[in-house]
Amino acid sequence: MAAVSVAAAIPRAVAGAFPSPSSENSKRSHFSSLQFPSELRTFGIRNQRLNSKLRHRTLTLVASKAQELSSDLDEILDNSEKPVLLDFYATWCGPCQFMARILDTVSSSMIDKIQVVKIDTEKYSSIADKYKIEALPTFILFKDGKQLDRFEGAMAADLLIQRIKASL
């Protein structure tokens, strides 16, 4: 069986599709009658629907982890000796990934002043709902269980440090 490459088929399609200028067809009609070889036509997209059935999944393990984390988080926020910076993020979020490196830098430079807690909003949506997270990344700074500051979006490390210090 002889294989026909797409690269070889295209010149034949183009050469056969456009009539010579001296032909009877008008310019308008030759554009509406382009013909491609059958090798290319088989790759066309047909009007097919993808039938996917909704699957109901139980997420009891994740829900119980979220409840455990929520109660642990409340305990951390209430009893921490240092202010706590919550970082609400998602793995698919580009600015969140950018901020991950910056948070590592900020956390290590302010290790004696704050504690950073990262919360994946996809895994712990109940916690994200509790704090009304509508944009990512979102940072909430707590001291003695009380919210001091809340800000959203990516920023440079020096700006983040200034914002934290101004709030404390």
TrEMBL record:
SUPFAM superfamilies on file: Thioredoxin-like
Cellular compartments per GO CC: cytoplasm
Signal peptide annotation: none
InterPro entries the record matches: Thioredoxin (IPR005746), Thioredoxin-like_sf (IPR036249), Thioredoxin_CS (IPR017937), Thioredoxin_domain (IPR013766)
GO molecular function: enzyme activator activity; protein-disulfide reductase activity
Keywords: Disulfide bond, Electron transport, Redox-active center, Transit peptide, Transport
Recorded coiled-coil stretches: none
Pfam families named in the record: Thioredoxin
Positions of the Thioredoxin domain: 48-168
Top-level taxon of origin: Eukaryota
Protein name, entry field: Thioredoxin domain-containing protein
Organism: Erythranthe guttata
